[in-house]
Amino acid sequence: MIELKKVTKKFDTGKAVLTAVDEVDLSISDGEIFGIIGYSGAGKSTLIRLLNGLEKPTSGTVEINGQTITAIKGGELRKARQKVSMIFQHFNLLWSRTVKENIEFPLEIAGVSKAQRGKRVQELIELVGLTGRENAYPSELSGGQKQRVGIARALANDPEVLLCDEATSALDPETTDAILDLLVDINKRLGLTIVLITHEMHVIRKICHRVAVMEGGRVVELGDVLNVFQSPKEEITKRFVAQVTDSGDSQETIKHLRELYPTGELVKLVFVGDQTEQPILTKLIRSHSVEVNIVQGNISHTQRGAYGTLILQLKGSAAEIEEALAFLRLEDVQAEVMDND
Amino acid sequence: MIESLFPNVDWDSMWEATLETLYMTTISTLFTFIIGLALGILLFLTAPKQLWANKVVNWLTGAFVNVFRSIPFIILIILLIPLTLLLMGTIRGPNAALPALIIGSAPFYARMVLIALKEIDKGVIEAARSMGATTGTIIWKVLLPESKPALISGITVTAIALVGYTAMAGIIGAGGLGTLAFLDGFQRSREDVTLMATILILIIVFIIQYIGDLVTIKADKR
């Protein structure tokens, strides 16, 4: 359990005081994958560093599993950091050490004996899928492999929380997905709480359970990933959601679709969770006389289930279309007619 | 053949002078390395936003380094005569040259250490902190290994400068190839002695550079 209470962090830049984190309250449960999204400068990097005491808040408290991180220092804080480990955008491996030695580093810090270190390192190398690369230097690894070393290193001392600082932002899309899969796997296998910050909605959609949207140091929106994707409230959230789904909401798109499909009505359907697996369209076509044409659609999978949008062209009399819409609403599908203005 | 090219060279004293030069260079390089490293690390860690950020200590260390780095070596030797007498009990011979050699070159090396440490990716220091490393661990296991190639090439340059300084120290009678070239060669107009001493100094410099380059390359896994 991670609890942030009224956490504020101000930086004195000499000329002005910058509020990087502004009265943030957050509560993250054990075993959760919690995402924090925001553009650069939103304060998310500072926020994640408050969790392991790399930054001290100006006011407010951070509590992790009953321990108040903001109140401890010195040896006690260093001990606590072994249970709240971190991976980084640029991996931050020691180039002077091999893969094996890099993973060994946190174990050396924790004072683990040499024999045990060797054993643990082997387990970790297998866990992250780097068998055979033990004696390579970071310079001989690809970005994805480097991040695997980073993850193995972070897991070495059996942490309770893993902090991910833009862990996939320096990787190509394919590698990003492989690393994200590994994180989900670790979360399930070890029951570890993961807190990640990112500017990519793709990362949130693919692995997070809940998401907080940050802007100007504040958490402006917070909720279940599926809910946030389905009905984003804030303007900034809508923009992040649009990163991964062209839901056809923009005026441009509507106008364009209207030109392509001038007849009938264009209807946008939003499916959430189980509905995505139901043959709703088949039912609609079988039971109604209206003509159905699929114009555009996509389904996204999140950790909390799938959600999708589908744009249909319905042709028929006004009454027939009205009946079809009523049927869809009865099936619990959000259906709205896309207006042309 | 060599005898005819260098008729005035007394090979025994030439060899003895070479050993003295090597002795002065080795001992002073060793101490310069240790003191310079300590000063460089202190300069680095006490700088603003670093682990031991401390304006006063940083300013004092910086001032010490700058002052001793700026005094011309030949003047430094003279200025340090009282200290040398106190530490070594004499102001002649190879041992007497050591305090001036070390005090003259350690600040120079400290600057190089500082540059080397500044080159280290801040991220790896942050990563070590996030793992719960103490500052001691960060110094020994992050700062030093991660800047090793630059530290080695820096001490190579410093050692070569020290060979030059030992020759200069020869003017005040420190012994070594510098003294030989000055007293036996220049003052007695025996150009062949001066030439031979120069050749030997060049050989020493080349060997140091060669070893330094080799070790630097071997240490660099980037």
Description:
The complex is a heterodimer of chains A (341) and B (222). Helix content of chain A is 37%, strand content 29%. A 6-stranded mixed β-sheet of chain A has the order 6-7-8-3-9-10, with helices on both faces. A 4-stranded antiparallel β-sheet of chain A has the order 2-1-4-5, with helices on one face. A 4-stranded antiparallel β-sheet of chain A has the order 12-13-11-14. Chain A contains 12 helices and 14 strands. The mean pLDDT of chain A is 90. By secondary structure, chain A is of the alpha/beta class. With 222 residues, chain B is mostly helical. Chain B has a single domain (9-219), classed as MetI-like (MetI-like fold, Orthogonal Bundle), CATH 1.10.3720. Chain B has helices spanning 2-5, 11-46, 55-70, 73-79, 81-88, 94-118, 122-130, 135-146, 148-169, 176-186, 191-219. In chain B, helix 2 packs across helix 10 (176-186). Classes of the chains: A alpha/beta (341), B mainly alpha (222). The A-B interface holds A 52, 54, 77-82, 85-86, 88, 90, 92-97, 105-106, 108-110, 137, 139, 153, 157, 163 and B 121, 123-124, 126-134, 137, 141-142, 145-146, 148, 219, 221-222.
Short account of what is shown:
The complex is a heterodimer of chains A (341) and B (222). Chain A has 12 helices and 14 strands. Chain A has helices at 44-51, 74-81, 99-109, 114-127, 143-155, 173-190, 201-207, 225-230, 235-244, 251-260, 280-287, 318-330, and strands spanning 2-12, 17-28, 33-37, 59-64, 67-68, 84-88, 161-165, 193-198, 210-215, 218-224, 265-272, 291-302, 305-315, 334-337.
